[in-house]
Amino acid sequence: MTAEPNGRQNLGLLCFYPHRAMEARLLATLAAAGFDDITMAQGRIAARIGPAGTRLTDLAEQALVTKQTAGHLVDQLERSGYVRRVPDPTDGRARLVRMAERGEQVVHLARRVEAEVEAEWTAHLGEEATAQLRAALERLREITDPYR
Amino acid sequence: MTAEPNGRQNLGLLCFYPHRAMEARLLATLAAAGFDDITMAQGRIAARIGPAGTRLTDLAEQALVTKQTAGHLVDQLERSGYVRRVPDPTDGRARLVRMAERGEQVVHLARRVEAEVEAEWTAHLGEEATAQLRAALERLREITDPYR
DNA sequence: CCATTTTCGTCAGAGGGTCTGACCATCGTC
DNA sequence: GACGATGGTCAGACCCTCTGACGAAAATGG
Question: Nearest nucleotide by C1' from A63 CA?
Fold first, then answer.
C-alpha cells in the first residue's frame, strides 16, 4: 500500500481514510456517551449479530476471523453486558449470541453517528457525487468482499 | 460500524472492503515472491519513507501511530534488511530511515500489484465510474485524513 | 441403529501491534 | 550558557489474532 511519489495514491489506500475516519468518530462518540469499554474489534463482531441472535461460527466467518478470536471478543462483550449467549434450541452444540439491552443502545447511537458522518460527507461532495460513490463502492464490493 | 438490517451499509464500511482486498492481495503476492516476513503494519510505515529517507517521528505522525510503535516496526524492517537507519547530517538527535536494496524491490513489486488490482477494479466498474470513484475519494480525503 | 465424519465451541499458548510513562541526548532560543 | 522543545529509546502493559488440540453434539451412511 505504497504512497507514490507523485500525489496519486492507489484506490485501496484512498478507501482507507474514510473508513478510518468513520471508525474513529464512532469510537469517540460512543466513549463520550459512556460506552468507553468498547473496542473496534468488538464492534466489528457485534455489528454482525442478527435480530434473532447469531452463532459464533457465523460471526467469525462474516468478520473474517477465527472462531477463537470471535469467541474471545464475544467474551468481552458479554462481560461488559452488551450481548448474552443463549442456547440454540435447534442445535445442542451451538449457542446464539444475542444483543442485550445495553448493546441495543449502542447500536442505536452508532446508527445515528453513522448518519451524521454521512451527512457531512454528502455536504462536502454533493448529493449526486455521493450517490455515485455509494454505487461504485457497492459494485466494487461484489469483487472485493468474499462474503457476498 | 454496524450493518443495517436492510442491505444498506454505511459508506465507511463500504470503503473497508476494497481496502482490505488490496492489502490482502499485496501481502499474498509479496509473500509468494519470497518477501514472506513482511506485515501490513510494517508496510504502512515503509510506504511513507521518502526517497531521501525520513525521520522516525515523521513516519509515526503520518501513519498515525506513536513514535514507539513506529520505532518498533522500523526495528523489524531493519532486521529483515528492508530499510536502514543513517544519521541525519542536519540534526545530531535524528536518524533517517532509508530504503535498502531489498526494500526497493518490494516497493517495485507492490506498485505492480497495485496497478494490477486497480486494473481489475476498472474492468469491473468501467473507466468513467472508476475515475469518478477516485475523484470522490480524493475529495473525501480532504476531510477524513488529518494529514493533508 | 451404530460407526464415522463433520460441525460448534472451548482451552492453552504464542506472537504481533499499539499504547502510556519515563527517560536521555541534542537542538534552538533567550 | 540555561532551559524548554524535539528526536528517539527503554520498559511494561493490554488487546487482537493466530495455530493446535480437544470434547460434545449433530449429520451421514451402511
Answer: D17
Q: In angstroms, how far is D19 C1' from A69 CA?
A: 12
Q: Give the start-to-end residue ranges of the domains of chain A.
A: 12-144
pLDDT truncated to tens, each residue of chain B (148 aa)?
555 445 678 899 999 999 999 999 999 999 999 999 999 999 999 999 999 999 999 999 999 999 999 999 999 999 999 999 999 999 999 999 999 999 999 999 999 999 999 999 999 999 999 999 999 999 999 999 876 5
Provide the 10 A C-beta neighbour count for residue A131: 12
CATH code given to domain B12-143: 1.10.10.10
**Domain spanning A12-144: which CATH class is it, in words?**
mainly alpha
Between chains, do B15 and A10 touch, taking CB under 8 Å as contact? no
Query: Could you tell me the distance in Å between the CA of residue B21 and the C1' of nucleotide D8?
Result: 35
**Does residue A93 approach strand C to less than 7 Å at its CB?**
yes
B38 interaction partners in chain A (CB closer than 8 Å): none
